[in-house]
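Late entry, written up from scratch paper. The run itself happened at the end of the previous shift, but nothing got recorded in the book at the time, so transcribing now.
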Amino acid sequence: MNNLANAITGLSLIFGFVSLIFSLESHYTFASWAIILSVILDGLDGQVARRNPVPSEFGKQLDSLVDVVSFGIAPAILGYIFIYRDFHQLLAVAALLIYLICSVTRLAKYNITPKEELVNYFYGLPTTASGGMLASFILIFRKGGEVFLPQFVPFVFLFLVLLLAFLMVSRVRYLNLDGLKQLFGANLLLVILSVILLLIIAGFLRKAGTTLFTLFLIYLLFSPFVVKRLSHNS
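Output as recorded:
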């Protein structure tokens, strides 16, 4: 199981690297979707790794290093190239550098946190959610291969970047996959299938970016309250 989990982690790294290439070629849609696919693979490799009775320290470290690329560097580069044409470059660099530093710090803190403290939640917003949220935000403004960027968007984007950076290194608690299992119980599979169906419909309606961003936003806003409720009930 560990080898399979590591292979999935490696595939996540490939998509993170592909996102960087697409960003440099100004293919923002493909770059964004590559990050989204990395988010999915990151969740999948975690589930596969949990099926192994002996935890792999190598797999844990590998996963964090891959996350730096796929959810730290890739979104930062994508965000910079996406906004720099219509916004002050120095400000964009500063905000995205802060985001990258916070994502690396978040992963380092996770690696040294005792497992018993991470039963149903993480401390700080996961880098997967941060990277996915930035990628889905960019998808909203991709229409037919063209960029439709209202003047207020760069300001909103940089505010979002700094907010995510702060939440990643905060002590705010966010549900992990075990917490989601406890929350939804036997209905978890139905919830996952419903989300997949929703995304398929949104794709046909060309609203996949908006739908994904909304899902990430719901997690960002409500997950801390759910964690608090689960903690009181346990």
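Residues 2-173 form a domain with the Four Helix Bundle (Hemerythrin (Met), subunit A) fold (CATH 1.20.120.1760).
(Scratch paper discarded after transcription.)
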